[in-house]
Specification:
There is one protein chain. The protein is of the alpha/beta class. It is built from eleven helices and eleven strands. The strands form three sheets. A seven-stranded parallel sheet has the order 3-2-1-4-5-6-9, with helices on both faces. A two-stranded parallel ribbon has the order 7-11. A two-stranded antiparallel sheet has the order 8-10. Helix 1 crosses helix 6, helix 3 packs parallel to helix 4 and helix 7 packs parallel to helix 11. 43% of the residues are buried.
C-alpha cells in the first residue's frame, strides 16, 4: 500500500496543521492547493479543474479531505474525486465535515455518505466552530477594524474547538493502525456565547472587544466585503441563526477519547495565538 498521504486544503486552518504534524512525525506528505507553490511534494489542485486531480492522487494511499471552503454544495466537485481517489489506490480517507451535518443526497451530507461507501478505512470529523475564526477567520476582520464580533447569534452558545485539536485527531485517524470507522464529533471543553468570547478576547488583547448583534443584511454586507460569495454568506447567516436557536450548545468528549488529554480551552488558545489579532490591524 502507498504510504504517502494527500492533504487537500493544505493552506486552510486544519489542512496546514495536519500537513505540519504529519511531516513532523516523519510521514510522507503531499500537499495540494490551488496555487501549487510550496514544499518538496506540493501540487496544484483546483476543485474546479478535474485535470489537476489525478496527478495529486498519483502514488498516495491516504487522504485528508477538505471540501471547497465556500461551496454551497460541494458534492458535484467532490464525489467524482472520491471515486477517482479509490481508483488510484487510496484506501483510507479522513474527511473534515462540520457539526450537525446529517446524511443526505446533496451537500456535505452526500460527501460524508460517499466517504463511508468508497473507502475501506475512513473517519468523518464533525467539529464545532473553530476558535481560529476569531484570529484568522471570518470574525477577525471586524475585531481588528472596530473591536466588534459581528455575528447575529444572540446569547447562543458554542463548544468552540481549537483547530490544533482537530488536526491532532485527524492525524491519529490517518496514521493509527486501525481507522476509526466512525464519525468523530469534536468540541472544546466549554460552551461559550459570543459575548463570553468577546470578554476573553478583551482580556487577552488588552483592547475592548464587544459582541454586536446587527441585522443580518448588515452582516451579509460585511461578509461580502471580505470577499465571501453572496450565496455562501447566506449559508453563514443560516448557521448564525442556528447558534442563536441553541443548535450548537453541545459538548463532546471525543477529543480526550482520541488524544488522551482534554481539548484546549478558549483561554489556552488565546494564550498561544491571541497575538495574531495584532497582526494586520485594521485589515482583513
Amino acid at each position: 500500500m502507498n504510504s504517502r498521504i494527500l492533504v487537500t486544503g493544505a493552506s486552510g486552518m486544519t489542512g496546514r496543521r495536519v500537513a505540519s504534524r504529519l511531516t513532523e512525525a516523519g510521514r510522507s506528505v503531499r500537499t495540494a492547493t490551488r496555487s501549487g507553490g510550496g514544499g518538496d511534494d506540493h501540487v496544484r489542485f483546483d476543485w474546479d479543474d478535474p485535470a489537476t486531480h489525478g496527478a495529486a492522487l498519483e502514488g498516495t494511499g491516504a487522504l485528508y479531505l477538505v471540501c471547497p471552503p465556500t461551496a454551497v454544495d460541494p458534492a458535484p466537485a467532490v464525489l467524482p474525486f472520491l471515486d477517482l481517489a479509490r481508483e488510484h489506490g487510496v484506501s483510507r480517507a479522513v474527511m473534515l465535515s462540520a457539526q450537525g451535518i446529517t446524511d443526505s443526497n446533496e451537500g456535505m451530507g452526500a460527501v460524508q455518505v460517499r466517504v463511508r461507501e468508497v473507502f475501506p478505512e475512513w473517519a468523518v470529523l464533525q467539529p464545532a466552530w473553530f476558535m481560529q475564526n476569531f484570529t484568522e477567520g471570518v470574525f477577525a476582520p471586524g475585531i481588528r477594524a472596530s473591536g466588534q464580533v459581528l455575528a447575529p447569534t444572540g446569547t447562543g452558545r458554542v463548544g468552540f474547538i481549537d483547530a490544533e485539536d482537530i488536526a491532532a485527531c485527524a492525524v491519529r485517524a490517518l496514521v493509527d493502525e486501525r481507522a476509526p470507522q466512525r464519525t468523530l464529533e469534536l468540541s472544546g471543553p466549554e460552551s461559550l456565547s459570543f459575548g463570553d468570547v468577546a470578554e476573553l478576547l478583551s482580556k487577552a488583547t488588552g483592547t475592548a472587544v464587544r459582541h454586536t448583534d446587527p441585522e443580518p443584511a448588515l452582516v451579509k454586507e460585511h461578509l461580502v466585503g471580505q470577499g465571501i460569495p453572496a450565496d455562501y454568506a447566506d449559508v453563514l447567516l443560516f448557521l448564525y441563526s442556528g447558534i442563536a436557536q441553541g443548535w450548537d450548545d453541545v459538548l463532546h468528549g471525543t477529543v480526550e477519547e482520541v488524544l488522551g488529554r482534554p481539548p484546549a480551552s478558549f483561554s489556552d488558545f488565546l494564550e498561544r495565538d491571541g497575538a495574531l489579532l495584532d497582526a494586520g490591524s485594521g485589515s482583513a
